[in-house]
Amino acid sequence: MGSDAATVIKQAHKECPETPFVLSQFGMSAVILPTSEIETVKSLPESQLSIKHHHYNVFLGEYSYMGTKADEFDAAMRHILVRNTPVILESFVAEVDYAVDKYIGKCEEWTPIKVRHAMSMAASAMSGRAFVGLPLCRDSEWVASTTSYTQDVSRAYIYLRSLSWFTKPFLAPFSPEVRSLLRHRKVNVEKLEPLLRAKQAKSAQDGDEKQGQRSFETRANDPPGGEMLDWFISRYRKSPTAHQLARDQLLVTFASIYNLSNALSYIIFDLAAYPEHVEELRQELKEVTGTTGVIDKISLPKLRKLDSFIRESQRMSPPSIANIPRFVTSPSGFQTSTGHVIPPGNTIMVRADAINRDANLWPEPDKFDGLRFSKLREQAGNDKKFQHTSTGADNINFGHGIWACPGRFFASAEIKVILAYIITNYDLKLKPETGKPGSFHYGFAILPDSEAEIMFKRRD
């Protein structure tokens, strides 16, 4: 049924490009809007079109915190994280050797690696370094919880969608799927409690006016890591509890690791499938970073070919066939430019694949061109355009407008650090008997083959 959704959207866009239509997937119905509605949808406030309400409904906010009121989390993500990518970058660089070497390994000979699993573990380790720092980011129970959390949310979603509205309140709290989410809460609280106490004690000892203050100052005496936890703490008027920080950590875990793992998997598939690009990327890394391949805040924006390759991989393998999801909250509904009125209580989305494969935007849209966007940026006036993190009417894979993903800069930086390490230290190739791994559709989501393997070999 999932693959049918992609077919339906593609066919509808071809036959009726400006007409909304309803599509149902796994108990969820959404009105799929034409791309001409992007500018209207992205600008309307929560009181009319709500992304939080959508997230609460779809991602089980009662149990996952998604879509719940989390002002401190929102402030940290939208106002602090975006301005402090260089600080986060130091954590990624400090952890990448450990993460990749542990979850991909030495690979002295050609070795098959399950890419989705390896990338999930590596992304968890590197994100964890920024989230909570050492030693917690390498704690086996913590890592197991962060890597399985989003999968458990998906399992709970599938189960709860099978229940009627009448039986759900009675059966849900006792189901194994929901109880697993509650266990993740418990693990997070137990692990964060001593860390929070230690930070509070240090803050009192140092005389900081506000916890988290050190995150904005020189951290020369501290190893990189744990910046995000400090930022979350700094947004609370009073000292937060471990339960509040656990909520923040689960929210950022859900928002980052799952999508990071999928994106990295697709990129690794593409590196192996299009080896003609690998040497170009290595050469760029060498020119920009020297022989080490280590990225810093100065070299990061100079990696235009790598940025282009990542965006092209995302264009060809986006996270979803439709995006910019909103729940209609306006009592009068949402009126499209075509005059259609979507009543309150409905979910709307914009067809994303129509943009990603639009021949008017991208010549030969079904062909992978890893340098497509770096070549576009060479044209006059395009220097700051067509970046991996850019959003607009030509790219809604990160959303667009006031609710565009604030973590996209975090994600892009982490992806580049991991890829720089892999490209510098490993050769890759497809398994000859299987070819390039594929993807599958689940509802509106597009997911990489979790069992697919790519051959890795350590470079001399």
Automatic annotation (TrEMBL):
Membrane topology (UniProt): Single-pass membrane protein
Locations listed in the record: Membrane
Region of interest (Disordered), ranges: 199-223
Superkingdom of the source species: Eukaryota
Any single GO CC term annotated in Swiss-Prot or TrEMBL for this entry: membrane
One Pfam family recorded for the sequence: p450
Residues that bind heme: C405
Composition bias type Basic and acidic residues, residue spans: 205-220
InterPro entries, alphabetized: Cyt_P450, Cyt_P450_E_grp-IV, Cyt_P450_sf
Coiled-coil residue spans: none
Gene Ontology molecular functions: heme binding; iron ion binding; monooxygenase activity; oxidoreductase activity, acting on paired donors, with incorporation or reduction of molecular oxygen
Keywords: Heme, Iron, Metal-binding, Monooxygenase, Oxidoreductase
Family label: Belongs to the cytochrome P450 family.
Descriptive protein name: P450 monooxygenase
Source organism per UniProt: Akanthomyces muscarius
